[in-house]
Sequence to fold (271 residues):
Amino acid sequence: MFLDRILTACRERIEEERRRVPLAVLMDAVRESPRPRDFYGALAPVQGDEHRGPRVIAELKRASPSRGVFRRSMEVTRLAPALEQAGAVALSVVTEETYFRGRLELLAAAKGCTSLPLLRKDFIIDEYQVYQSRAAGADALLLIARLLEGEQLGEYVALARELEMSALVEVHSEKELEKALGSGARIIGVNNRDLDTFATDLETTVRLLPLIPPDRIVVAESGISTRRDMTVLLDAGVRVFLIGESRMRARDVGAKLRALLGTESVDGGSC
Fold:
């Protein structure tokens, strides 16, 4: 399975990085780093904004193991400002190297050319990566409930909070949602993509949404490629979306995002 291969590569990379940059060095770097930007605040509703439009975390992702390469190069200094101007409230930066062709250095590149908070999207399976994310400039990090035991997930959520970062805890099933809620996560991402088959189904979010307490922020992830897809989830009550692949394939990522938000048409209204 793709996931097993991804995790094997991830473990090997962590050990290599730990030898090159020990944890103590990362902890020193964290102490010297600026305070993170407010990722949670960028997603959270505020009093009186009931009519505010959808909030989008726009993803910078070069490739995926199931869909291949989207872009020959990742021109972060051009893409990040374009997405901010198009209406994104935060950016998700994919840093997994082997299968998604990301790099940790993309976080610093994005941080230097946009004011938006940044989510590090990777396969976080070790405490080392939490400190590494903060030292690299991440304001938030993705934690996948399926990959972590309940106690470990809770520890990483708490550590992120201690480091003044937000944690977006991703789930795909009722069992994973129960684990995420038990971890104390304030931001729950519902991944419409099955990590075993890589098939997507928007009904995953629709099914799990009523089970999530109203005091949590819910983020719909994956499979949102048209304005129609977004409307289905908006009608179900979702207000925050993480969108990547459909935009990254577009020549003009800003125009594509505006089309998804309903503020601009692309190719005669199709997006």
Notes: The chain has one domain: 2-261.
